[in-house]
Specification:
The complex is a heterotrimer. By secondary structure, chain A is of the alpha+beta class. The N and C termini of chain B lie far apart (46 Å). In chain B, 37% of the residues lie in helices and 12% in strands. Classes of the chains: A alpha+beta, B alpha+beta, C alpha+beta.
Amino acid sequence: MEYDKILSDLLNRDEYHLVGKKTVRSDALNKLLGRTRFTADYIPKGTKAVRVLRSTRPHALINRVDISAALQMPGVEAILTAKDITGENEIGYALPEQPFLNDKKVHYVGDPIALIIASDDVATQEAMDAIEVEYEPLPPVFDVDEAMAPGAPFIHKDGNVALTTRIRKGDIEKGWKQAKIVIEDVYRTPFQEHMALEPEAAYAVPEGIDKVTVIACMQSPHVVREKVARVLGWKLNQVRIIQAMTGGAFGKKDDTGPLISAYAAFAAMKTGKPVAYVMDRSEVVSVTPKRFPARFKYKSGADRKGKMTAVEVEITLEVGAYANRAPFWLWRQTAHACGPYEVENVAVDGKAVYTNKVYGGSYRGFGNLALHFAVEQQVDKLANELGMDPVEFRMKNILREGSRTTCDQLLDNSVGMEKCLVGVAEASEWTKHKDPIRNGTKIRGWGVGCAYHGNSTSRSTPDWSAASLLFNIDGSFLYRTSICEIGQGTPFSHAKIVAEIVGARIESIKIEPPDTDSTPDSKPTHGSRGTMMGGTAAADAAINLRERMVRVAADMLRCSQEQVELRDSVAYNKKEPSVKVPFNELAEMMHIRGENPGSYGFYTSPKRFFDAKTGLGVNYACYTFAASVAEVEVDSETGEARVIKIWPAMDVGKAIDPLSIDGQVHGAISHGMGFVLMENLLVRDGVVLNPNFGDYIIPSAMDTPEIADTILVEEPYKYAAFGMKGVGEPSILSAVPAIVNAIHHATGIWFTSLPITPDRLYKALKEAKA
Amino acid sequence: MIFELNGKNVGVEAKPTVTLLDLLRGELGVTSVKKGCEQGECGACTVLLDGDPVTSCLILAPQVEGRRVLTIEGLVDNPLVRELREAFLRNGAVQCGYCTPGMLLSGYALLRDNKRPSEEEVKTAIEGNICRCTGYVAIIESILDAAERIAPD
Amino acid sequence: MKPLTGFELLRPSTLSGALELLATLELAWPIAGGTDLIPQFKDDGCESKHLVDLSLIRELNGIKMEDNFIVIGPMTTQTQVISSRLIEENAPALHEAVKLMGSPQIRNRATIGGNLCNASPAADTAPPLLVHDAEVKLTSLEDSRWIPLTDFFAEECTALEPNELMTSIRFPIVHGASSSFQRIGRRRGFTLSVLNLAVYIERDGKNLSEVKIAVGAVAPTPIMLEKVERELKGMRMDTNLLEHARKMVSEAVNPRDSARSSGEYKREMAGVLTERALSAAWTRVGGKLP
């Protein structure tokens, strides 16, 4: 269903009342008053504490786990191992072979072995110290090439390559023949740690012997429910999962949510008591999933006019101990491999490889961040070789309506790449910055980055979302979505959409905290799908309800349905606006008349076709496009670089709330800037050496660059309500390459790996001079 | 021991191995003060001790004897904090909300002592409050916005 | 991370009370602002059984001028140090260093004595105090002695005897002198220094009549570069001297590679920052550079 058109016909407004306007979000005041409860704020004094005993070896067999001494320690309630599991000992996301608790083998430093439940932190620590684990060390593998080499120790039973991907499009040899210049290089990106401010926490309460309630931070309550039920060996309706307000996630809590909830639920059911599992910062940084490190062997060619003719990419994704999100991550990289450009001849080969390190998981931008880091430098290099301006070169190649993407998907709707690129070029006065500018030891440079990001899931995985809406008898609304509030403001955008459609005052809509006992399954909060998919389900629910509201209102107002307008929680006759029916009266009448005051919204993504053999097909419902220009300043004497200013642009389809879009853009720029300049997870022999804010450096307020107003491009996606597309991730994808390309502009140095710390930059400058 | 919390005298058993953060959250139910790192690096646990911003995770409970502790709950009706709240709301400076109470306390301490801070001074005042959601832009704007309203040129 | 456990907190209000506790109790350690110790306890556990809180001892806090010395109590917070005009005018390097240390929250608790006694080679207050010829007073129940700060640091420890406390820090006021602090950090916000450095100079016309250089994070303790100081003393201040100083300092230090930075980088930056510090201090004393 083409929801964009459906809504514009239905509402027939020149200007929307709420959609597209800046609105104060409904949860902000409570957060400002300090009244909002996050998971740990729910835990009553005296609740038993859960700790996880984790492997201290990167790769080993477990010969023996002796908990007998630990069981005697004061305050210990229980110690649970794999043999106590009543359901399945399996918690892997995509590929199996991720035990919930390991009893046979450990695959990385941090792999869970046992749960300790005791009265408090001191008791759990002492019990943990008293548990003896006898390991039989196996040779660890810390490098992807070593992992793939013949004779390498197997981390999982089927070998160290978790999966492969492949695209063959056109005729790559022909493409090389047509190329006047060919650029080939290897790009590497490291781990990145999300550093969400709230450490993971889960609080579980047994409800009798056959049900458990868990309050925790997460991004997908129904996935959490499924995983918890699986470990307990229970039916879905025996597990109740409630998402508490979550203090930042950026993808990680999509992976940790099920784990922490399962630890807490399992412990609660085994002890018969409420329990709480709260991670400390060092545990979060040491053991929870990270952005996957990646390597791209990238070869691209362009003809003399600057048109790209061939792209050949070999992607090696370092997975770490478990596959987790790897299939989705690698496929996304594969399907986007050319970047936001039209290239006829493409060959991509991807491999996801296990190593004995902390494993990869969801992180804003997914594999596309590493990909665009590689692509945008390749593109700048091609432009450089041809003596062409980087923006001009991009303009010759970018995707437009009618173009085909890397995986041969025809873009027949909603392609705002050009407007984004032109927008940032103009806003930054790009043509005035042909040359870097020197001022003493400081050099200023400018760089551009373009990006695109398929919304939601790939490869024709069925995708849908649901929502429900209740019109209470007093005229107030309860809206339900299991798209989670993790700071990005998406559920509030849903409320705005609902308010726009049913004509309610925004204050009259309350959003239920996601609760699997009552909230419909909107599917996960990831892939920038929360607004596009979840919001369209909200619109569907609202459209259904509106129909009944208008019918009853017409009756009450004694006019035709076409004459009914709903606005500010009042129904009135457009021809006689002074005749009004307030919503509490409307609601009451609906109840009396038996006109269903509740509605269920369901939205399914248009059917897509994908051939896994060729890697070609319609991969994503729609793409968000983004572009950034960055101005950086390098101190050539010390190698210190700082971002002075960023000009961001994004094609969001339709802006639901400019304030929240800005929030996503600014936040993403911060993560991106950190990734380029300062974030550096140090892992040696499988051990994370800097599991704290002091040594894993992320941007502080002092590091904030100037950010120009976001250029909002709106090329509506016809199947989503109001034409909206995802925002949360694309904002990081163009900022990172823009900064890297600006550093090149300033210094003449291409940095094919990150982070670009002062000592690296200084060394590179010195070597370049020599 | 007795100390003043949000304007009221409170008597508690203050164990030396309990931080002020855990005392506030665990014993006294003051949950606006958040635990983010326990090493003084993130600022989520910021409170005002005798008016000065400090990270409560680095203070041992007995050390606040006879002193004044203020959290955001104790400043609800403070006019300066109210201006800050309005500014944060207007400018979209609240996302996940975890850093928010600490940000407000640092912002309040700044504007209380410096009516028209420069942008650099605002950044310095909240340097110890890490935010991973907003990129700080809207927060800095909000504090400057509130300053402008309370002390217009 | 580990829970805090196994210690009691004692809060004496007099210096003699504190010294008494340190002398009589086993595994008694002093605690100042706690901004280094408490994170260490959370990482590694706490071996002490009795923490002796010094924050109630008034005589350990404060900044004053006495007999042409600036005298600082070790429990003086970094915030207090920043707001001292006395320090800003007479030891600008110290003022600059402390401004960069930590966040406002940390500075409101962290103490200058704590920074020195924690004995990190990257302690930011060390280079400025060293170049200003600082001395520290170490006191026990029995005795009290002043030692030059240059003699205070040793690898992973200090000159403090068991049962001793640092009870005062002082450095002379020298009219017509100035100093400068420089450092490299991994971000603009508060962060441990990758390298830090302070320079002190006295000007005589166009010449440097006195030069002191102290560098942190290039050795197990902060160090002074006496050979370089002797070489530069009395020389004419110009771009040649700056270049010369840069080379000499780079050659004089021998930093190792660390997780935070390569040794080579620190070596080169020691030279670069010396140049910058010399220029800044020279300008402060009214000197001109072509």
